[in-house]
Amino acid sequence: MQIEYLILFIIGSIAGVLSGLFGIGGGIVIVPSLVYFLGFSLIKANGTSLAALLMPVAIFAVLQYWKAGYLRVKTSALIALGIVIGVIFGSEIALSIPSTILKQLYEFFLIYVSISFTGIYEVIRVKLFKLPPSKKHSENENYNIFAMISLGIFAGVLAGLFGIGGGLIIVPALIGIFHYPTKLATASSLGALLLPVGLPGVIVYYNAGQLDILSAAIVALGIVIGSIFGAKIAINLPSKTVKQYFGAFILLVAIDFIFFS
Predict the structure, then answer these.
(1) For 139-156, how does the pLDDT look when each residue is reduced to its tens digit (9 = 90+)?
(2) By the 8 A CB rule, do 77 and 195 touch?
(3) Would you say 160 and 50 are in contact if contact means Cβ atoms under 8 Å apart?
(4) What is the pLDDT of residues 38-62, one digit of tens each?
């Protein structure tokens, strides 16, 4: 049992580092890890991951970004509002569809994430289709109230569906659509996920008996510690190479899900 607790803490710590680096909740690491290393069902892993991300696990990472001047409170608040609305729908969908379909959706989602983080889409855009590079990022906060709430709703649906925090949708959208610099997007995403926005989804999973509270608490502790280091790395160092490695890792996870599980 102690080994299981250690594994949970390590999973949380790794998820925390990536959370601080990329502004994600960490569920993209937590869910597959719970399935592979501890034998959780995908549904139970989703519920446990959402519960772990419910606590303000990124508080110290958010403070790091805030002190460095990267946190955009209005953007975070609007996205958070949307997540609260969307997460319950995603959770209900996850519990109502066959597990095989959920697994297939998750595989496609992992592939999307890997492409977003490796920058493959930009290479295809420029090299294959001979299109100009994507618009340069603005240093200013650029948002539309309706658009930001809609982004939050979409992220919330996927959060409930796949047990993620939503940052894997928020960060690429802020960078690609709203032209936020990476660090602004990362900080704004973490700020949106700081409040217990996933609570409606957690309640749905809890009522269905599909979450492990103790495991979620241990994972959350690991995230708190790991996110501090991730934020410091992101603030002080260029993260492009690390993002590409992370994208490659997620692609490997997706391939394993598709062909070996």
Answers:
(1) 455 568 899 999 999 989
(2) no
(3) yes
(4) 999 989 999 999 999 988 888 888 9
Give the Å distances, CA to CA, from 106 to 31, 40, 54, 161: 10, 15, 21, 9
Sequence letter at residue 61: A
Written as one letter, the residue type at 204 is: V
**Percentage of the chain exceeding pLDDT 70:** 84
Backbone region of residue 129 per phi and psi (left: phi > 0; alpha: psi in -120 to 50; beta: other values): alpha
From 22, 3, 12, 5, select the one nearest 231 (Cα to Cα): 22
Q: How far apart are CA 118 and CA 247, in angstroms?
A: 5
Q: CA-CA distances (angstroms) from residue 155 to 87, 119, 169, 177, 234?
A: 8, 20, 6, 14, 23
pLDDT reading at 168 higher than 80: no
DSSP H helices in the chain: 2-22, 27-38, 42-52, 59-67, 73-96, 99-118, 120-123, 145-162, 167-176, 182-194, 199-207, 213-236, 240-260
At position 14, the amino acid (one-letter code) is I
This prediction's pTM: 0.77
